[in-house]
Write a structure and sequence with these properties.
Length: 622
């Protein structure tokens, strides 16, 4: 091993650990070998993407024995933003550099920078979010109320009478997947199952779009002020919110604001709605909302999909419609929602995010704004610049896709080091409010079901849907997937952030890529053992305040096994196919099994292959 002069993830070298509030001092300490005869050390820092740097000298801070010496400084940054830093040092033989070689570990001769996230001091998370459990519902497929009478209004819909049947996947005459088949799930059906969700420990119910639209996924919004008739009415929505809050459950709505449907009151390409849409007339009040290269046929659309014309989100009329005093953001908060999940948040401009967040917070200081960002949200680049999603004033937190991939990879391949690095990297780079508000999922409506990915691997890139139609998991694939899913759920429920269950995962629902991942919840056919595991995890999490905080200590991450401490709990996860015996560190040897595991013999915990165990610490160890 080479000499390590600095570790950004050690409070011995950097205090405080992680992101810092603007105006908060950060202390940095560098250790160098005495024999190089260092004459001075400087901190070099600046904007993450800037061409400039500032320098701050470190002062000599004493010696460790006779072979090492310490240098230290403190820096205070007053403006929120993303910054970078490294160190230069001088010796009698010349100048050297200390940079990040990965994982926060410093190396002499390495020129890479470390990242420092500086957030607005006023940024905070709504009180009800941290420590909770989220549950995502695709509304058409969760539950139809007992007395539901399906109607074909509005038209162009295929109403299914075979709850649990395979979603329609065949392309139409134009070669498009229509996604116009409906099974009839609705808001009153969700309300009927609120006690079930409460038993799981759910505190936040995230609903995929519920507004009027032509497709079953409803991301082609036709009217933001109207609940889709197949789901119910605004009265039904208000009742759902009220009943949910009585059980301690908040409702999070899906906000699709980068585009509308072409078949909508705003664009009206199919001439379905009264009044002139942008496609019909340049005199339409909605014409300025869209970008026409050559009206009416040539217009900008989301990812080139012509049924999804893009909005010009920075236009004053668009901002007023969504974020004004009587805009969409406020309207549905007044109706009972507790916040918004922003679809493709990284495709929305800063001015929109600023205005929308301000509207939510003005209407309800406890309103929650969550963004869909698939990459590292602390340094995401889009719209021609480095984004400031998490610095305060745009969103509270994001969907945690990086963690989802790391957890799934660990379960399949035993990559404990990669999982540990993902967790520690987020703890280092994300502000505390964002960390505590993370949505830790392992699958959504945009991915194949976790059970399929864990049991049979990833779908082939670009594969035709026909290859995955009528393709349930084989018995051995399903059994392997179930073992790994229980393992992943244990990680979801105990790592920093908040677990999110994609409806039906807890019941063992299978599904490949869209639309197969959007099947009907299998009421009466749930996997009982899996459901019991999720309930046990929910009860454990809801009974421990430690999971609302950020206390995290990594005990080990190697050989297909990861172990860490969260408050009074020790979590051990074994991704190996074979059983293992894990020896607890001496200070934790009075910990006792609380969930999972094959047994305990003094300080040794027995774990089955592809399983997890949770232990509770004694009072003397907390």
């Amino acid at each position: 091993m080479h000499f390590v002069p600095f570790r950004s993830r050690s409070e011995l070298h950097k205090t405080p650990f992680g992101a810092v509030a603007a105006g908060q001092a950060t202390a940095l300490r560098v250790i160098l070998p005495r024999h190089i005869r260092c004459t001075g050390v400087r901190l070099c820092w600046g904007a993450y993407d800037g061409g400039w740097e500032m320098e701050a000298p470190l002062v000599w801070d004493g010696m460790e024995g006779t072979h090492e010496e310490w240098w230290r400084c403190a820096v205070t940054i007053t403006e929120p933003g993303l910054y970078r830093y490294r160190f230069l040092f001088d010796t009698e033989a010349g100048r050297g550099v200390i940079g990040d070689e990965g994982g926060g570990v410093g190396c002499i001769g390495q020129s890479n920078y470390w990242q420092l996230t500086v957030f607005a001091p006023a940024a905070k998370l709504p009180d009800w979010v941290a420590g909770g459990i989220m549950y995502q519902i695709f509304p058409d497929r969760f539950r139809a109320a007992e007395d539901t009478a399906l109607s074909v209004t509005p038209g162009d819909r295929l109403l299914r009478g075979d709850w649990g049947g395979e979603p329609q996947w065949q392309p139409n005459a134009r070669g498009n997947i229509t996604q116009y088949d409906f099974f009839g799930g609705n808001l009153r059906g969700i309300a009927e199952k609120l006690p079930y969700l409460a038993e799981l420990g759910v505190t936040c119910l995230y609903l995929n779009p519920i507004f009027l639209a032509q497709s079953n996924h409803r991301y082609d919004t036709a009217d933001y002020r109207t609940i889709d008739p197949l789901l119910g009415t605004e009265k039904d929505f208000r009742a759902l919110c009220e009943n949910a809050k009585q059980l301690g459950i908040h409702i999070l709505l899906d906000g699709v604001f980068s585009h509308t449907g072409a078949d909508s009151i705003y664009f009206n390409k199919q001439h379905r709605y009264p009044g002139a849409g942008a496609y019909e007339s340049r005199d339409s009040q909605y014409y300025p909302w869209y970008h026409f290269r050559a009206w009416p046929q040539d217009y900008a659309s989301w990812w080139g999909i012509d049924i999804l014309p893009e909005l010009q989100e920075s236009h004053p009329a668009v901002l007023e419609f969504f974020a004004g005093k009587d805009g969409i953001a406020r309207h549905w908060l007044r109706a009972g929602a507790s916040g918004w999940r922003l679809d493709v948040a990284d495709e929305l401009p800063d001015v929109f995010l600023d205005c929308f967040f301000a509207a939510v917070q003005s209407e309800d200081a406890e309103g929650y704004v969550l963004g869909e960002v698939w990459e590292d949200a602390s340094r995401k680049w889009s719209h021609g610049g480095r984004r400031r999603f998490l610095l305060g004033g745009q969103m509270h937190s994001v969907m945690n896709y990086p963690l989802a991939e790391a957890v799934l990879r660990f379960a399949r391949e035993g990559d404990a080091g990669g999982l540990a690095d993902t967790v520690m990297g987020q703890l280092e780079h994300y502000p505390p409010h964002a960390l505590r508000g993370l949505m830790n999922h392992i699958g959504t409506h945009d991915t194949a079901r976790a059970l399929n990915r864990l049991g049979a691997g990833e779908p082939e890139p670009g594969a035709d849907r026909s290859a995955y139609a009528h393709r349930p998991l084989r018995a051995e694939q399903r059994e392997r997937g179930l073992r790994r899913l229980r393992l992943c759920a244990a990680l979801q429920f105990t790592l920093p952030g908040n677990p999110c269950i994609y409806y039906g995962d807890e019941a063992g629902l299978e599904g490949w890529m869209d639309p197969f991942n959007r099947g009907c919840y299998p009421w009466g056919r749930e996997d009982a053992a899996l459901l019991d595991w999720y309930r046990a995890l929910g009860a454990l999490r809801r009974g421990c305040d430690d999971f609302a905080g950020l206390d995290f200590s990594l005990l080990s991450a190697m050989l297909g096994c990861i172990a860490y401490r969260r408050g009074r709990y020790i979590v051990i996860a074994n991704a190996n196919a074979h059983a293992i015996a894990y020896d607890l560190p001496e200070r934790y040897r009075s910990a006792r099994l609380a969930l999972g595991g094959l047994g305990q013999n003094e300080a040794r915990i027995q774990l089955a292959g592809e399983s997890a165990a949770l232990l509770t610490l004694g009072d003397e160890e907390e």
